[in-house]
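Data availability (excerpt). The following record was deposited with the supplementary files.
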Amino acid sequence: MEEKPIHFEDMVAAVEMPTDGILSRTLVNTAAAKVVLFAFSTGQELSEHTAAMAATLHILKGEADVILGEDIHHASAGFWAHMPPHLKHSVRTKTPTVMLLVLLKKSA
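Predicted structure:
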């Protein structure tokens, strides 16, 4: 089955901002990568966790504290990070925030 291209003119507009809580939308899930768009209301948190695969995180809108290992980053729109496998990380939002997460799966 042939994969079709996917594009977004405005990724922030591709997800509805919740009034309270966290919404996620999986945009792509292939053997190579999983791409998830998150929308957070103010004060939401993805608690500390790890992933078995490398990932990238990109803040598209808003402000959040992004904790990578022991380092706290005060992130706003444009912040980008690469996370190696098994790195402890978490996200705490200060304002309504949109974040793009790309999980990099191992290719066969």
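Summary of structural features: Strands lie at 22-29, 33-40, 45-49, 54-61, 63-68, 71-76, 80-83, 89-93, 97-104.
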